[in-house]
């Protein structure tokens, strides 16, 4: 049985509903796989004679704020340069790839400057 979906034939509302469902499924799979990895990590540590706490301590240089971490990884927050007028919780700092909500508006023909945040 094929679960292939012909997205080209779907309405806008159907596509948005599908994206919402996909986001939910992706998050569920992410959580599930992360738990499996964490369980495996804990078992390998214990089998090697270490505690989970020792394993976590050994990972600290790789965590945000660890030795040699960049400013962004240490928690520096970039100011909001763009804000969605329809949903003010949607923001973008102007760094990196444009936020999905902004890219969607631009694809629909709207200007990025419409969403430039004003100083409060």
UniProtKB/TrEMBL annotation:
<dbReference type="Pfam" id="PF00816">
    <property type="entry name" value="Histone_HNS"/>
</dbReference>
<dbReference type="InterPro" id="IPR037150">
    <property type="entry name" value="H-NS_C_dom_sf"/>
</dbReference>
<feature type="domain" description="DNA-binding protein H-NS-like C-terminal">
    <location>
        <begin position="72"/>
        <end position="117"/>
    </location>
</feature>
<protein>
    <submittedName>
        <fullName>H-NS histone family protein</fullName>
    </submittedName>
</protein>
<dbReference type="InterPro" id="IPR027444">
    <property type="entry name" value="H-NS_C_dom"/>
</dbReference>
């Amino acid at each position: 049985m094929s679960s292939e979906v012909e997205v080209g034939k779907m309405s806008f509302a159907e596509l948005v509903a599908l994206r919402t469902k996909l986001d939910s499924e992706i998050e569920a799979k992410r959580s599930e796989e992360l738990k499996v990895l964490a369980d495996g990590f804990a078992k390998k540590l214990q089998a090697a004679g270490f505690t989970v706490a020792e394993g976590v301590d050994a990972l600290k240089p790789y965590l945000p704020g660890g030795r040699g971490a960049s400013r962004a990884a240490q928690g520096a927050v970039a100011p909001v340069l763009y804000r969605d007028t329809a949903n003010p919780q949607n923001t973008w700092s102007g760094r990196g790839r444009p936020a999905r909500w902004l890219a969607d508006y631009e694809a629909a023909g709207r200007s990025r400057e419409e969403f430039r945040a004003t100083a409060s």
